[in-house]
What does this fold into?
Amino acid sequence: MAKNNTLDFEKPIYELESKIEEMRQYEGDLDIKDEISKLESKVFSLKKSIFDNLTRWQRVQLARHPERPYTLDYINMMTTDFIELHGDRHYGDDKAIVGGLAKLDGQKVMIIGHQKGRDTKSNVYRNFGMPNPEGYRKALRLMKLAEKFNIPVITLLDTPGAFPGLEAEERGQAEAIAKNLFEMSKLRVPIIIVIIGEGASGGALGIGVGDRILMLENTWYSVISPESCSSILWRSWDYKEQAAEALKLTAPDLLEQKIIDRIIPEPLGGAHKNYNQIADTLKSILLEELADLMKIKPDKLVQNRLEKFGAMGVFEE
Amino acid sequence: MVWFKRSKHNISPDSKKLDMPDGQWIKCESCSEIIHNKQLELNHWVCLKCNYHFRIGSKEYINLLFDKGTFRETDKKMKSGDPLKFEDTKKYNERINSTIKKSDLMDAVKTGTGKIKNQKVSFACMDFKFIGGSMGSVVGEKIARAIDRGYKEKIPVIVISQSGGARMMEGAFSLMQMAKTSARLARLAEAKLPFISVMTDPTTGGVTASYSMLGDINIAEPNALIGFAGPRVIKQTIGKDLPKGFQRSEFLQEKGFLDFIVDRKDLRDKIALLIEYFADEK
It folds into this structure.
């Protein structure tokens, strides 16, 4: 792990790990095998105790980890024969949302997701994963295409939000998102939603209406980011930890709130610690869920989806 | 010895101005014209001089739109459930209770059915004064039920929006109200029933990005702020001042997102006419 990507709460683990690294260099000369294995088991239990007791803010940090796998990583690892499809046929091709046809163990799918960049240059190219209206319109075009040819849809959510820019407003950011919610709610093929990183508000939900909503273990999904929530409600940027706690935005929280259906376990230390493992896990769960959903007739599928979102909300009468 | 004796005590510091009791005169926020309350009310809270539309609430819109005595409110008692036990500088349930007391409203939307020029409609109107007109579970559920009432009774649905967006204090529940209401509108559309969306100042965030923008007809009052992101956030993002009139009704019409802009005094006539156009003639 590169040192500058170490999160605060991971420091004790990193320190132990580098100590082991150091000792390994002397392993040939000295008999310190036992010493090393002792330290290794100590690292493991330390990791376990840290990652079993993450605060909500720490999970937000993990969800944003710069080494986390992004949509195109999952597509490369999980699927074959991917053909990326570009453009909304109205204005342009948004780089913050990617999508196309792919095969998941031979099963045809339309897979769409937010795409972040990994360094400054690619982040500028991807607009930090913040879509403009044409991104949502491209996603909708691909979904309608999938519906036409009876291909199920998988969307991967990972965005800090829809882009709050001048041109985005001019081209109808709100209308684009609203239209997607409207159309996705009645799409006559199965839709599986997976939150793979950040699920920030309408920008995430804009490709997030479906039959199953799955969340990776260390991700967040809410109506607002903890920072923005802090700045509005506490009138300061300093209360992000409290805001994260108050918003109850982690996968276990959302499962308890019955907003999501399932949590996808990540490798110890987060999804970025083992790309192959998380891709395999996600792939097998997607295949399992798809098999279930594809048995359901389109009318019933749409009716169930309406009822699923209809049941979300808490009020007294 | 007093040289001049006042015959009447007609001026004293604590005398009340009898012809101008407090609160009878209102200054226009746009042109500073001083207007009498009654005059303003007769003009539907629109400035007589500059046509500035004062922000009004559900009660006023109901009086403005409906045939006298025809409006029946629905889901009157629905109240927020505080699912997250949310607390910032104040507890959410305390905020709810004190806002209920202060505003005489149960939440940020009022729903019901009534007649507009003898045509029955299902109606919802938001109130900005209830936590910024924000949408939580109650707003989402009441809007969804209003849409369902249209669906079941085969009558048009009209929603007047006035909101800062989704309500933070209900977290992901608030977000999901966007999907809930949009899904119900999709079903209404499949049944070929009209939905008219009226946007008033302000309509932003998750409300704009769900039902407000999904009208068969999208209307706005003049100069209303309408958008997804708030102007302050956009200004911060791009680091430049925003052009004049940005995100106002006229701008949205110019960019192709509104069918037309309507003066409040014409709102009832225009809605009635639209309903007539869309009515099933069979």
Observations:
- The beta strands of chain B are 25-27, 34-36, 72-74, 79-80, 109-116, 119-126, 157-163, 195-203, 217-220, 260-261.
- The longest strand of chain B covers residues 195-203.
- Chain B touches chain A through 63 residues (CB under 8 Å).
- Residues 174 and 200 of chain B are 21 Å apart (CA to CA).
